[in-house]
Amino acid sequence: MSQEHRLLSRLVWSPLVSTFGRRRALRGKEAAAAVDMKPSPMAVFCPEDPSEISIVLESARAAKAPMICLGTGSRITPDLRVRLPKQGYAIIDLKGLSGIDELNSDSLWISVLAGTPMKTVVAAARKHDLRLAGTEAEEGTVGGWLSASAGIDDCILGVHQSPILSIEAVLATGNLVHSVSAPRAATGPDPFSLLLGTWGGFGIITRATLKLEPLPERKLIAGFSFSSLSKAIDFIKVIVTRFLPPRRATLFIDGQSSKRKARVVVAYEGQQQINRAGQKFAFSQAEIFSGQPAEHGKARQWLTSDPFKDRKFFSSGIAWSKLAGFLRAVDAQLGGFDKAVIDHPGLTGCLLRVAPGNSETTPRHEDWDNLVDPDNSLRNALDSSRSWLIRVRSQLDPDGLINPHAWPPPWPGGEC
Ligand SMILES: Cc1cc2nc3c(=O)[nH]c(=O)nc-3n(C[C@H](O)[C@H](O)[C@H](O)COP(=O)(O)OP(=O)(O)OC[C@H]3O[C@@H](n4cnc5c(N)ncnc54)[C@H](O)[C@@H]3O)c2cc1C
Question: 52, 139, 397: which to mutate for ligand 1, most atoms within 8 A of CB?
Protein backbone atom coordinates (compact mmCIF):
# COMPACT_ATOMS: atom_id res chain seq x y z
CA MET A 1 0.00 0.00 0.00
CA SER A 2 1.45 3.36 -0.94
CA GLN A 3 1.91 5.95 1.79
CA GLU A 4 -1.00 8.02 0.45
CA HIS A 5 -3.41 5.12 0.50
CA ARG A 6 -3.05 4.94 4.25
CA LEU A 7 -5.55 7.80 4.28
CA LEU A 8 -8.08 5.32 2.99
CA SER A 9 -7.12 2.57 5.43
CA ARG A 10 -9.75 1.73 8.03
CA LEU A 11 -7.56 2.97 10.87
CA VAL A 12 -7.37 6.48 9.48
CA TRP A 13 -10.68 6.53 7.65
CA SER A 14 -13.07 5.49 10.47
CA PRO A 15 -12.46 8.51 12.74
CA LEU A 16 -12.79 10.81 9.71
CA VAL A 17 -16.11 9.28 8.69
CA SER A 18 -17.41 9.47 12.24
CA THR A 19 -16.55 13.20 12.27
CA PHE A 20 -17.88 14.04 8.82
CA GLY A 21 -20.53 11.38 8.18
CA ARG A 22 -20.71 9.60 4.81
CA ARG A 23 -22.25 12.65 3.13
CA ARG A 24 -19.23 14.88 3.79
CA ALA A 25 -16.41 12.30 3.64
CA LEU A 26 -16.45 10.85 0.15
CA ARG A 27 -14.13 8.33 -1.40
CA GLY A 28 -13.69 6.25 -4.53
CA LYS A 29 -16.17 7.02 -7.32
CA GLU A 30 -18.14 9.44 -5.16
CA ALA A 31 -14.99 11.49 -4.55
CA ALA A 32 -14.08 11.46 -8.27
CA ALA A 33 -17.60 12.61 -9.20
CA ALA A 34 -17.64 15.41 -6.59
CA VAL A 35 -14.84 17.49 -8.13
CA ASP A 36 -13.70 18.05 -11.69
CA MET A 37 -9.99 17.21 -11.28
CA LYS A 38 -7.72 14.83 -13.16
CA PRO A 39 -6.20 12.69 -11.75
CA SER A 40 -9.29 12.30 -9.56
CA PRO A 41 -8.90 12.65 -5.80
CA MET A 42 -9.06 9.52 -3.67
CA ALA A 43 -11.15 11.29 -1.04
CA VAL A 44 -13.05 14.56 -0.63
CA PHE A 45 -13.80 16.13 2.73
CA CYS A 46 -16.37 18.91 3.07
CA PRO A 47 -15.78 20.63 6.43
CA GLU A 48 -18.38 22.98 7.89
CA ASP A 49 -16.27 24.10 10.81
CA PRO A 50 -12.55 25.05 11.11
CA SER A 51 -12.02 22.38 13.77
CA GLU A 52 -12.93 19.72 11.18
CA ILE A 53 -10.07 20.94 8.99
CA SER A 54 -7.68 20.41 11.90
CA ILE A 55 -8.90 16.82 12.18
CA VAL A 56 -8.36 16.15 8.46
CA LEU A 57 -4.89 17.70 8.46
CA GLU A 58 -3.82 15.74 11.51
CA SER A 59 -5.03 12.51 9.85
CA ALA A 60 -3.36 13.47 6.57
CA ARG A 61 -0.09 14.06 8.38
CA ALA A 62 -0.29 10.66 10.07
CA ALA A 63 -1.12 8.98 6.75
CA LYS A 64 1.39 11.11 4.79
CA ALA A 65 -1.37 11.97 2.32
CA PRO A 66 -1.18 15.11 0.15
CA MET A 67 -4.18 17.42 0.67
CA ILE A 68 -5.42 19.94 -1.86
CA CYS A 69 -7.59 22.79 -0.67
CA LEU A 70 -10.37 23.86 -3.01
CA GLY A 71 -12.55 26.97 -3.15
CA THR A 72 -14.40 27.02 -6.47
CA GLY A 73 -11.27 25.90 -8.35
CA SER A 74 -11.29 28.93 -10.69
CA ARG A 75 -7.53 29.36 -10.23
CA ILE A 76 -6.58 25.67 -10.51
CA THR A 77 -5.50 26.27 -14.08
CA PRO A 78 -3.98 23.61 -16.40
CA ASP A 79 -0.44 24.54 -15.31
CA LEU A 80 -1.42 23.80 -11.68
CA ARG A 81 -3.38 20.66 -12.62
CA VAL A 82 -0.23 19.04 -14.03
CA ARG A 83 1.29 19.43 -10.58
CA LEU A 84 -1.45 17.40 -8.83
CA PRO A 85 0.23 14.45 -7.07
CA LYS A 86 0.03 11.49 -9.45
CA GLN A 87 0.34 8.95 -6.65
CA GLY A 88 -2.95 10.16 -5.14
CA TYR A 89 -4.31 12.95 -2.99
CA ALA A 90 -7.39 14.07 -1.08
CA ILE A 91 -9.39 17.28 -1.35
CA ILE A 92 -10.61 19.62 1.36
CA ASP A 93 -13.57 21.32 -0.30
CA LEU A 94 -14.28 24.60 1.49
CA LYS A 95 -17.62 25.47 -0.04
CA GLY A 96 -19.46 24.25 3.08
CA LEU A 97 -17.39 26.53 5.32
CA SER A 98 -19.41 29.51 4.26
CA GLY A 99 -21.22 32.40 5.88
CA ILE A 100 -20.91 35.97 7.11
CA ASP A 101 -20.18 36.31 10.84
CA GLU A 102 -20.54 40.07 11.12
CA LEU A 103 -20.51 43.23 9.06
CA ASN A 104 -19.68 46.51 10.77
CA SER A 105 -20.73 49.35 8.50
CA ASP A 106 -19.37 52.07 10.83
CA SER A 107 -15.91 50.60 11.23
CA LEU A 108 -15.91 49.29 7.65
CA TRP A 109 -15.16 45.59 7.99
CA ILE A 110 -16.79 42.25 7.33
CA SER A 111 -15.87 38.97 8.99
CA VAL A 112 -16.53 35.86 6.88
CA LEU A 113 -15.75 32.15 6.68
CA ALA A 114 -13.23 31.29 3.97
CA GLY A 115 -15.54 29.28 1.71
CA THR A 116 -17.97 32.20 1.35
CA PRO A 117 -18.42 33.14 -2.32
CA MET A 118 -16.98 36.56 -3.13
CA LYS A 119 -20.34 37.39 -4.75
CA THR A 120 -22.10 36.89 -1.38
CA VAL A 121 -19.64 39.25 0.34
CA VAL A 122 -20.00 41.88 -2.39
CA ALA A 123 -23.84 41.66 -2.21
CA ALA A 124 -23.86 41.94 1.60
CA ALA A 125 -21.59 44.99 1.50
CA ARG A 126 -23.68 46.60 -1.24
CA LYS A 127 -26.77 46.52 1.00
CA HIS A 128 -24.92 49.01 3.22
CA ASP A 129 -23.64 51.08 0.26
CA LEU A 130 -20.20 49.54 0.80
CA ARG A 131 -17.81 47.39 -1.24
CA LEU A 132 -14.62 45.39 -0.67
CA ALA A 133 -11.69 47.78 -0.38
CA GLY A 134 -9.33 48.01 -3.32
CA THR A 135 -10.67 45.16 -5.45
CA GLU A 136 -13.40 44.42 -7.93
CA ALA A 137 -12.97 40.65 -7.57
CA GLU A 138 -16.31 38.85 -7.51
CA GLU A 139 -15.28 35.34 -8.59
CA GLY A 140 -14.38 32.39 -6.41
CA THR A 141 -14.32 32.21 -2.64
CA VAL A 142 -12.80 34.52 -0.05
CA GLY A 143 -10.13 31.93 0.86
CA GLY A 144 -9.23 31.38 -2.80
CA TRP A 145 -8.99 35.12 -3.40
CA LEU A 146 -6.76 35.73 -0.35
CA SER A 147 -4.56 32.76 -1.23
CA ALA A 148 -4.01 34.11 -4.71
CA SER A 149 -3.76 37.86 -3.90
CA ALA A 150 -1.19 39.25 -1.55
CA GLY A 151 -2.45 42.80 -1.66
CA ILE A 152 -4.85 45.40 -2.97
CA ASP A 153 -3.97 48.60 -4.79
CA ASP A 154 -4.17 51.79 -2.81
CA CYS A 155 -4.46 54.43 -5.51
CA ILE A 156 -3.96 57.34 -3.07
CA LEU A 157 -0.64 56.10 -1.67
CA GLY A 158 0.32 54.23 -4.85
CA VAL A 159 1.35 51.17 -2.84
CA HIS A 160 -0.03 47.71 -2.10
CA GLN A 161 -2.02 47.28 1.11
CA SER A 162 -3.13 44.16 2.95
CA PRO A 163 -6.72 43.21 2.06
CA ILE A 164 -7.42 41.97 5.59
CA LEU A 165 -7.70 43.24 9.15
CA SER A 166 -7.35 39.79 10.68
CA ILE A 167 -7.19 36.17 9.60
CA GLU A 168 -7.72 32.67 10.98
CA ALA A 169 -6.17 29.54 9.54
CA VAL A 170 -5.34 25.92 10.19
CA LEU A 171 -1.60 25.44 9.74
CA ALA A 172 -0.15 22.32 8.15
CA THR A 173 0.47 21.08 11.71
CA GLY A 174 -3.31 21.02 12.27
CA ASN A 175 -3.15 23.98 14.71
CA LEU A 176 -5.89 26.59 14.42
CA VAL A 177 -4.31 30.07 14.70
CA HIS A 178 -5.75 33.59 14.52
CA SER A 179 -4.19 36.98 14.14
CA VAL A 180 -5.36 39.94 16.18
CA SER A 181 -6.46 43.27 14.73
CA ALA A 182 -3.78 45.53 16.18
CA PRO A 183 -1.36 48.12 14.81
CA ARG A 184 1.84 46.61 13.40
CA ALA A 185 3.85 48.72 15.87
CA ALA A 186 2.16 46.81 18.70
CA THR A 187 2.62 43.32 17.28
CA GLY A 188 5.98 43.29 15.46
CA PRO A 189 6.46 41.32 12.22
CA ASP A 190 3.30 39.74 10.85
CA PRO A 191 3.72 35.98 10.26
CA PHE A 192 0.09 35.81 9.10
CA SER A 193 1.02 37.59 5.87
CA LEU A 194 2.53 34.19 4.93
CA LEU A 195 -1.03 33.06 4.25
CA LEU A 196 -1.69 35.77 1.65
CA GLY A 197 -0.71 35.23 -1.98
CA THR A 198 1.06 31.92 -1.28
CA TRP A 199 -1.66 29.70 -2.78
CA GLY A 200 -2.32 27.74 0.39
CA GLY A 201 1.31 26.65 0.83
CA PHE A 202 1.40 27.44 4.56
CA GLY A 203 -2.04 26.44 5.77
CA ILE A 204 -5.73 26.67 5.10
CA ILE A 205 -7.46 29.99 5.64
CA THR A 206 -10.69 29.43 7.55
CA ARG A 207 -11.95 32.95 8.33
CA ALA A 208 -10.97 36.54 7.58
CA THR A 209 -11.97 40.08 8.41
CA LEU A 210 -11.90 42.04 5.17
CA LYS A 211 -11.69 45.81 4.74
CA LEU A 212 -14.70 47.63 3.28
CA GLU A 213 -15.02 51.08 1.75
CA PRO A 214 -18.03 53.23 0.78
CA LEU A 215 -19.47 52.72 -2.69
CA PRO A 216 -18.36 55.68 -4.76
CA GLU A 217 -20.87 58.48 -5.14
CA ARG A 218 -19.81 58.80 -8.77
CA LYS A 219 -17.61 57.00 -11.30
CA LEU A 220 -16.15 59.01 -14.15
CA ILE A 221 -14.25 57.45 -17.02
CA ALA A 222 -12.28 59.35 -19.64
CA GLY A 223 -10.28 58.02 -22.58
CA PHE A 224 -7.57 59.67 -24.69
CA SER A 225 -5.72 58.63 -27.87
CA PHE A 226 -2.08 59.55 -28.47
CA SER A 227 -0.05 59.34 -31.62
CA SER A 228 3.20 59.41 -29.63
CA LEU A 229 3.95 56.62 -27.17
CA SER A 230 6.38 58.69 -25.11
CA LYS A 231 3.74 61.42 -24.66
CA ALA A 232 1.19 58.81 -23.54
CA ILE A 233 3.68 57.48 -20.97
CA ASP A 234 4.44 60.98 -19.69
CA PHE A 235 0.69 61.66 -19.48
CA ILE A 236 -0.11 58.56 -17.38
CA LYS A 237 2.86 59.27 -15.11
CA VAL A 238 1.63 62.80 -14.41
CA ILE A 239 -1.95 61.65 -13.92
CA VAL A 240 -1.10 59.08 -11.26
CA THR A 241 1.62 60.93 -9.39
CA ARG A 242 0.27 64.49 -9.23
CA PHE A 243 -2.94 66.00 -7.88
CA LEU A 244 -5.81 63.46 -7.40
CA PRO A 245 -4.86 59.92 -8.42
CA PRO A 246 -7.52 58.02 -10.39
CA ARG A 247 -8.81 54.67 -9.12
CA ARG A 248 -7.58 53.09 -12.35
CA ALA A 249 -5.32 54.24 -15.14
CA THR A 250 -4.51 51.95 -18.04
CA LEU A 251 -2.34 52.56 -21.09
CA PHE A 252 -2.99 50.33 -24.11
CA ILE A 253 -0.32 50.21 -26.82
CA ASP A 254 -1.18 48.72 -30.22
CA GLY A 255 0.82 48.10 -33.38
CA GLN A 256 4.40 47.60 -34.46
CA SER A 257 7.11 50.12 -33.61
CA SER A 258 6.85 52.16 -36.81
CA LYS A 259 3.13 52.93 -36.41
CA ARG A 260 2.32 52.49 -32.78
CA LYS A 261 -0.83 53.96 -31.25
CA ALA A 262 -1.50 54.52 -27.58
CA ARG A 263 -4.76 54.90 -25.66
CA VAL A 264 -5.15 55.82 -22.01
CA VAL A 265 -8.26 55.29 -19.88
CA VAL A 266 -8.54 56.95 -16.49
CA ALA A 267 -11.34 56.12 -14.04
CA TYR A 268 -12.10 58.38 -11.09
CA GLU A 269 -14.29 57.12 -8.28
CA GLY A 270 -15.54 58.72 -5.10
CA GLN A 271 -17.09 61.98 -4.07
CA GLN A 272 -18.61 63.80 -7.02
CA GLN A 273 -16.79 67.13 -6.65
CA ILE A 274 -13.39 65.48 -6.17
CA ASN A 275 -13.99 63.25 -9.19
CA ARG A 276 -14.82 66.22 -11.34
CA ALA A 277 -11.65 67.99 -10.23
CA GLY A 278 -9.60 64.88 -11.05
CA GLN A 279 -11.19 64.52 -14.45
CA LYS A 280 -10.67 68.21 -15.22
CA PHE A 281 -7.00 67.77 -14.41
CA ALA A 282 -6.80 64.73 -16.73
CA PHE A 283 -8.31 66.72 -19.63
CA SER A 284 -5.96 69.67 -19.07
CA GLN A 285 -2.91 67.35 -19.02
CA ALA A 286 -4.14 65.47 -22.10
CA GLU A 287 -4.15 68.75 -23.98
CA ILE A 288 -0.55 69.45 -22.91
CA PHE A 289 0.55 65.97 -24.11
CA SER A 290 -1.50 66.19 -27.36
CA GLY A 291 -4.01 63.48 -26.36
CA GLN A 292 -7.34 63.40 -28.18
CA PRO A 293 -10.41 62.76 -25.98
CA ALA A 294 -12.36 59.62 -26.94
CA GLU A 295 -16.14 59.24 -26.94
CA HIS A 296 -17.39 58.18 -23.51
CA GLY A 297 -18.74 54.77 -24.59
CA LYS A 298 -15.46 53.95 -26.31
CA ALA A 299 -13.35 54.50 -23.21
CA ARG A 300 -15.58 52.14 -21.22
CA GLN A 301 -15.27 49.57 -24.02
CA TRP A 302 -11.44 49.84 -23.92
CA LEU A 303 -11.52 49.07 -20.20
CA THR A 304 -13.70 45.98 -20.49
CA SER A 305 -12.03 44.36 -23.52
CA ASP A 306 -9.34 41.72 -22.92
CA PRO A 307 -6.30 42.81 -24.98
CA PHE A 308 -4.54 39.46 -24.52
CA LYS A 309 -7.39 37.12 -25.34
CA ASP A 310 -5.81 33.87 -26.60
CA ARG A 311 -2.39 35.56 -26.70
CA LYS A 312 0.77 34.76 -24.84
CA PHE A 313 2.24 37.70 -22.92
CA PHE A 314 5.10 38.54 -20.59
CA SER A 315 4.62 40.60 -17.47
CA SER A 316 6.77 42.45 -14.93
CA GLY A 317 6.65 45.36 -12.55
CA ILE A 318 8.82 48.18 -13.85
CA ALA A 319 10.00 51.58 -12.59
CA TRP A 320 8.65 54.64 -14.40
CA SER A 321 12.21 55.81 -15.03
CA LYS A 322 13.01 52.60 -16.97
CA LEU A 323 9.73 52.12 -18.83
CA ALA A 324 10.38 53.97 -22.13
CA GLY A 325 13.92 52.56 -22.46
CA PHE A 326 12.66 49.08 -21.67
CA LEU A 327 10.02 49.19 -24.42
CA ARG A 328 12.73 50.29 -26.87
CA ALA A 329 14.85 47.34 -25.74
CA VAL A 330 11.91 44.94 -26.33
CA ASP A 331 11.79 46.23 -29.91
CA ALA A 332 15.53 46.00 -30.41
CA GLN A 333 16.34 42.76 -28.59
CA LEU A 334 13.17 40.66 -28.39
CA GLY A 335 11.86 41.14 -31.92
CA GLY A 336 9.30 43.80 -31.03
CA PHE A 337 5.71 43.69 -29.82
CA ASP A 338 2.31 44.63 -31.16
CA LYS A 339 0.36 44.86 -27.92
CA ALA A 340 1.24 46.09 -24.47
CA VAL A 341 -0.72 47.21 -21.43
CA ILE A 342 0.51 49.34 -18.55
CA ASP A 343 -1.64 49.42 -15.43
CA HIS A 344 -1.62 49.20 -11.61
CA PRO A 345 0.30 52.49 -11.59
CA GLY A 346 2.00 53.44 -8.33
CA LEU A 347 4.28 56.25 -7.24
CA THR A 348 7.44 54.50 -8.40
CA GLY A 349 6.32 52.24 -11.24
CA CYS A 350 3.62 50.15 -12.86
CA LEU A 351 2.79 46.68 -14.13
CA LEU A 352 3.80 46.09 -17.74
CA ARG A 353 2.37 43.29 -19.90
CA VAL A 354 3.69 42.74 -23.41
CA ALA A 355 2.54 40.37 -26.17
CA PRO A 356 5.54 39.65 -28.43
CA GLY A 357 4.93 40.05 -32.16
CA ASN A 358 6.67 40.79 -35.43
CA SER A 359 9.34 38.22 -34.70
CA GLU A 360 10.21 35.03 -36.55
CA THR A 361 11.18 33.33 -33.32
CA THR A 362 9.04 33.89 -30.24
CA PRO A 363 11.15 35.13 -27.35
CA ARG A 364 11.60 32.74 -24.45
CA HIS A 365 10.86 33.36 -20.80
CA GLU A 366 14.62 33.64 -20.09
CA ASP A 367 15.03 36.32 -22.79
CA TRP A 368 12.39 38.44 -21.07
CA ASP A 369 13.93 37.87 -17.62
CA ASN A 370 17.37 38.84 -18.91
CA LEU A 371 15.99 42.08 -20.29
CA VAL A 372 14.02 42.95 -17.13
CA ASP A 373 16.83 41.97 -14.80
CA PRO A 374 20.16 42.19 -16.65
CA ASP A 375 22.35 41.96 -13.53
CA ASN A 376 20.22 39.26 -11.81
CA SER A 377 19.55 41.52 -8.84
CA LEU A 378 15.77 40.93 -8.88
CA ARG A 379 16.18 37.18 -9.35
CA ASN A 380 18.69 37.02 -6.49
CA ALA A 381 16.28 38.89 -4.21
CA LEU A 382 13.41 36.60 -5.24
CA ASP A 383 15.55 33.49 -4.79
CA SER A 384 16.58 34.52 -1.30
CA SER A 385 12.99 35.25 -0.24
CA ARG A 386 11.88 31.94 -1.80
CA SER A 387 14.55 29.98 0.02
CA TRP A 388 13.50 31.64 3.29
CA LEU A 389 9.86 30.66 2.57
CA ILE A 390 10.92 27.11 1.68
CA ARG A 391 12.65 26.83 5.06
CA VAL A 392 9.53 28.07 6.87
CA ARG A 393 7.32 25.69 4.91
CA SER A 394 9.57 22.72 5.55
CA GLN A 395 9.37 23.38 9.28
CA LEU A 396 5.58 23.60 9.25
CA ASP A 397 5.05 20.82 6.74
CA PRO A 398 8.18 18.62 6.50
CA ASP A 399 6.55 16.17 4.05
CA GLY A 400 5.15 18.94 1.81
CA LEU A 401 1.61 17.59 2.12
CA ILE A 402 -0.43 20.81 2.07
CA ASN A 403 -1.30 22.06 -1.40
CA PRO A 404 1.78 20.57 -3.10
CA HIS A 405 0.34 21.65 -6.49
CA ALA A 406 0.83 25.26 -5.44
CA TRP A 407 4.41 25.00 -4.32
CA PRO A 408 6.49 26.86 -5.30
CA PRO A 409 3.65 29.31 -5.91
CA PRO A 410 2.89 30.63 -9.39
CA TRP A 411 3.92 34.12 -8.32
CA PRO A 412 3.22 36.91 -10.81
CA GLY A 413 5.89 37.84 -13.30
CA GLY A 414 7.36 36.24 -16.37
CA GLU A 415 5.46 34.46 -19.05
CA CYS A 416 1.70 33.92 -18.72
C1 LIG B 1 -13.67 36.36 -14.40
C2 LIG B 1 -12.74 36.59 -13.23
C3 LIG B 1 -12.51 37.90 -12.82
C4 LIG B 1 -11.67 38.15 -11.74
N5 LIG B 1 -11.43 39.44 -11.34
C6 LIG B 1 -10.60 39.68 -10.30
C7 LIG B 1 -10.32 41.01 -9.85
O8 LIG B 1 -10.84 41.99 -10.40
N9 LIG B 1 -9.46 41.19 -8.80
C10 LIG B 1 -8.87 40.11 -8.17
O11 LIG B 1 -8.12 40.29 -7.21
N12 LIG B 1 -9.12 38.84 -8.57
C13 LIG B 1 -9.95 38.61 -9.61
N14 LIG B 1 -10.20 37.33 -10.03
C15 LIG B 1 -9.53 36.27 -9.31
C16 LIG B 1 -10.51 35.65 -8.35
O17 LIG B 1 -10.90 36.50 -7.32
C18 LIG B 1 -9.83 34.43 -7.80
O19 LIG B 1 -9.61 33.62 -8.93
C20 LIG B 1 -10.68 33.67 -6.88
O21 LIG B 1 -11.00 34.39 -5.74
C22 LIG B 1 -10.09 32.34 -6.51
O23 LIG B 1 -11.07 31.70 -5.74
P24 LIG B 1 -11.36 30.17 -5.85
O25 LIG B 1 -12.28 29.88 -4.73
O26 LIG B 1 -11.82 29.76 -7.20
O27 LIG B 1 -9.90 29.61 -5.57
P28 LIG B 1 -9.33 28.21 -6.06
O29 LIG B 1 -9.07 28.29 -7.52
O30 LIG B 1 -10.17 27.12 -5.55
O31 LIG B 1 -7.95 28.20 -5.26
C32 LIG B 1 -6.88 29.05 -5.60
C33 LIG B 1 -5.63 28.61 -4.82
O34 LIG B 1 -5.80 28.87 -3.42
C35 LIG B 1 -5.86 27.65 -2.66
N36 LIG B 1 -6.95 27.84 -1.73
C37 LIG B 1 -8.28 27.92 -2.00
N38 LIG B 1 -8.95 28.19 -0.86
C39 LIG B 1 -8.04 28.27 0.12
C40 LIG B 1 -8.10 28.52 1.53
N41 LIG B 1 -9.24 28.74 2.15
N42 LIG B 1 -6.94 28.52 2.23
C43 LIG B 1 -5.76 28.28 1.64
N44 LIG B 1 -5.64 28.04 0.33
C45 LIG B 1 -6.76 28.04 -0.43
C46 LIG B 1 -6.05 26.53 -3.67
O47 LIG B 1 -5.45 25.34 -3.24
C48 LIG B 1 -5.34 27.10 -4.90
O49 LIG B 1 -3.96 26.93 -4.79
C50 LIG B 1 -11.04 37.06 -11.08
C51 LIG B 1 -11.27 35.72 -11.51
C52 LIG B 1 -12.11 35.50 -12.57
C53 LIG B 1 -12.35 34.04 -13.01
Answer: 139
